[in-house]
Structure formats: structure tokens, C-alpha cells
């Protein structure tokens, strides 16, 4: 399912990353680019961790099998066009009209910082916690975001490793 998000005539309010989103037509074009690539889908699905391809607006365009399985097993909707925090139902993503990456709290999010770096052409690794409403379902992730270009279209590979069990073990051992 594609989330329809027409562009607003003026910039949406944000306290960190840009809030604007691609139109439904742009998303459909980007999905086609990724799905017709003979290597992108199989390569993503070969990765054991969570991987998604985002567009320049940080919207989900494609997800791998590992993330799809996690989402289905946790009752999360499989929608294209949302952002990573929205997809994983981070409570902070709902705190601002612009969604994931646009609230004041997002300034402290490791994933948002990696996304900002990738938008500027960089890459790197950082930890992040996705706070969820559901008790005991917070996610501690190690995140890497890498910019790529396919058919002259900028994308970002958002790769995340769930390290929740390690974080909870080390905290409970203290």
C-alpha cells in the first residue's frame, strides 16, 4: 500500500529534518526503478538485518524480507511512503505533523543523524532507540545509512541491526 502524500504549497513545520514528502506518482516511479533492478531486491533479501531503501524525502520505497517478517510478526502495517520511525511506530514520529525526523526530540535520534549525514553524501554508524507505545517493544538499533543513485535517482540504503537483547542484557547485568 502506498501512502498518498501530496506536496504542500509551503514548507511543513519541522524542528530538525525537512518534512516534505514525495507525491504518490514519484513514489510509484521510484518503486518501479527498484523493483525492475535485477540486483536490488535479491541483494537486500540476502541481508539478515533490517534493510530498507529510502528516497530523498526519507520515505520507505522497498524493504527486505527480514524487516518484512519482523513487521508482520509484530502487527505493523507494510506501507510504502512512510518514514522509518513511522513504519516502526516510534512515539516520537507522531509528535510532529511532519512525522519521523521533524520533532525536537528527533535531534537526539541516532537514525535521524545518520539520515542527515546521508542526505549530505556521507555515511556512518550510530545507535538509536525506537520508543514504541507497546510495552516491552522498544527497539535498540545499530543504524547505517548509505546514499546510492539508481537511474539518476537518489536513494539511501537504511540498514539496521536489532541490538535490543544486548542492550537489555548489559543494563540488567549492572
Summarize the model shown.
By secondary structure, the chain is an alpha+beta fold. The chain has helices at 24-35, 40-46, 65-73, 84-87, 110-119, 164-172; strands at 50-55, 60-63, 125-130, 139-150, 153-162.
Could you walk me through the main structural features you see in this protein, from its secondary elements to its overall organization?
The chain is α+β, with helices and mostly antiparallel strands and 174 residues long. It has a single domain, classed as PAS domain (Beta-Lactamase), CATH 3.30.450. The chain has helices at residues 24-35, 40-46, 65-73, 84-87, 110-119, 164-172; strands spanning 50-55, 60-63, 125-130, 139-150, 153-162. A five-stranded antiparallel sheet has the order 2-1-5-4-3. The protein is globular and about 40 Å long.
Furnish the topology, listing elements before pairings.
Layout: H1 24-35, H2 40-46, E1 50-55, E2 60-63, H3 65-73, H4 84-87, H5 110-119, E3 125-130, E4 139-150, E5 153-162, H6 164-172
- How are the strands ordered across the major sheet? 2-1-5-4-3
Q: Which value, in Å, is the CA radius of gyration?
A: 16 Å
What is the overall number of helices?
A: 6
CATH architecture: 2-Layer Sandwich
Strand content: 15-25%
State the share of residues found in helices, binned by percent.
25-40%
Category from helices, strands and their pairing: alpha+beta
Number of domain units:
1
Mean pLDDT score, rounded?
Answer: 90
CATH superfamily: PAS domain
Major sheet size, sense and barrel closure? 5 strands, antiparallel
Task: For the record, give the distance between the C-alpha atoms at the N and C termini, rounded to a whole number.
Answer: 44 Å
CATH fold naming: Beta-Lactamase
The H-and-E topology, N to C, reads as HHEEHHHEEEH
Amino acid at each position: 500500500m502506498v501512502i498518498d502524500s501530496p506536496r504542500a504549497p509551503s514548507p511543513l513545520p519541522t524542528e530538525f529534518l525537512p518534512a516534505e514528502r514525495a507525491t504518490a506518482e514519484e513514489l510509484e516511479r521510484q518503486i518501479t526503478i527498484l523493483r525492475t533492478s535485477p540486483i536490488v531486491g535479491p541483494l537486500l533479501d540476502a541481508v539478515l538485518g533490517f534493510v530498507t531503501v529510502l528516497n530523498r524525502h526519507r520515505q520507505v520505497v522497498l524493504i527486505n524480507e527480514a524487516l518484512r517478517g519482523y513487521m508482520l510478526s509484530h502487527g505493523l502495517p507494510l506501507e510504502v511512503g512512510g518514514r522509518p520511525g513511522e513504519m516502526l511506530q516510534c512515539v516520537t514520529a507522531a509528535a510532529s505533523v511532519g512525522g519521523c525526523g521533524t520533532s525536537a526530540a528527533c535531534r537526539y535520534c541516532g537514525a535521524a543523524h545518520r539520515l542527515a549525514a546521508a542526505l549530505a553524501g556521507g555515511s556512518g554508524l550510530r545507535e538509536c532507540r525506537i520508543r514504541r507505545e507497546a510495552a516491552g517493544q522498544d527497539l535498540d538499533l545499530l543504524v547505517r545509512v548509505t546514499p546510492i543513485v539508481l537511474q539518476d535517482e537518489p536513494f539511501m540504503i537504511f540498514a539496521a541491526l536489532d541490538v535490543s537483547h544486548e542492550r537489555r542484557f548489559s543494563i540488567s547485568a549492572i
